[in-house]
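Field log, afternoon session.

UNIT: design team B
ACTIVITY: writing a sequence onto a fixed backbone
BACKBONE:
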């Protein structure tokens, strides 16, 4: 067992591993797989397999610079849905406030609940917008 661990350590030492893009691709593969199981559409299984091959090839890649650049582009292009999800999850935990995204800079803004229509002032860019609290 010790030799296997050493071999595994040497094998994975300079590999890229997992990042946000890989986790998202993996989640997409699982969703496509489940869609294929429940609908019986073969194309979903093919999509799932392609995504899984992408995940494994990215995780085992030795070109860390290129994989990091891909992940950075992914993070830049998905900033709005990731912040929307974060604002939604913060709002679930905090029942005294509501969380909104600034339409200009996508900063998460917190306002107290139950005050009717409020003018939200973005602390980052200074934009004002109206939301129900
Ligand atoms: Zn803003």
């Amino acid at each position: 067992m010790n030799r296997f661990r050493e071999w595994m350590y040497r094998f994975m030492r300079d590999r890229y591993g997992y990042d946000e893009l890989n986790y998202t691709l993996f989640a997409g593969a699982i969703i496509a797989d489940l869609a294929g199981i429940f609908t019986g559409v073969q194309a979903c299984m093919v999509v799932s397999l392609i995504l899984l091959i992408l995940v494994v090839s990215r995780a085992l890649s030795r070109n860390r610079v290129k994989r990091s650049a891909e992940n950075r582009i992914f993070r830049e292009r998905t900033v709005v849905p990731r912040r929307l999800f974060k604002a939604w999850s913060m709002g679930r935990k905090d029942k005294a406030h509501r969380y909104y995204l600034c339409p200009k800079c996508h900063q998460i803004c917190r306002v107290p609940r139950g005050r009717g229509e409020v003018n939200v002032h973005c602390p980052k860019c200074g934009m004002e917008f109206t939301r129900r609290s």
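LOG NOTE: The pocket of zinc ion is lined by residues 102, 104-105, 107, 122, 124-125, 127 (CB under 6 Å).
NEXT ACTIVITY: expression trials, pending approval
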